[in-house]
Amino acid sequence: MQVLEAEVTSVTSYAYKASLIGSAHRFELTEQGLSWHIGGRTSLWPYDEISAIRLSFRPVSMQQHRFRADVTHSSGRRIAILSTSWQTAALMAPQDNGFRAFILALHARMAKAGSRAVLTAGLGRTAYAAVLAFLAVLTVAMAGLLIRALVSGEFAGALFILGFAALFAWQVGGFVRRNQPQRYSFDQVPKALLP
Fold first, then answer.
1. Top-level class of domain 2-122+182-189
2. Cβ distance 11 to 30 under 8 Å?
3. pLDDT 10s digits, 155-166
4. Half-sphere exposure of 20 (CA within 13 A, CB side)
5. Which of 40, 96, 110, 133 counts the most CB atoms within 10 A of its CB?
6. Which of 67, 68, 62, 64 is closest to 91 using CA atoms?
7. For the whole model, what pTM was predicted?
């Protein structure tokens, strides 16, 4: 029985540095709720007062493998939890295992508390539609440049366009695929949006 009590009263924590000069953002999952410390602000949000969670894939130049969870309170306040932490001026370190474990534990505790939070993944539908429209226009423009290069006999230019298109598709394709708007349930957290 003591092992079971230890599991019930255990505290899961996670911390990351959002910027090089700022203090760490610290989060704890306690029996009472999600406790967070960001800068000089501190709060405790009971699990049933968390109104929404949005998971997304948000790469940046210093870290191409970065994930984000936006947690919204019923009062409208929102906090972001990132899967990377600043180490030095040139190094942003991934914290994949800690982030994944914390997010899954948060979902499990919210489900246990009977939360009715709206769980969404990816970009908003409008932003996603805008990204797809931009990519469609870019594809037509690149195809036009490729045809022009081939017709005028600029095979080096055509190879450059193909190489650039392949690199762009590889970089942006993962972002678009992972950030497709969707809803999910507490027991079906999208694996594509967890490191």
1. mainly beta
2. yes
3. 998 999 999 999
4. 7
5. 110
6. 62
7. 0.80
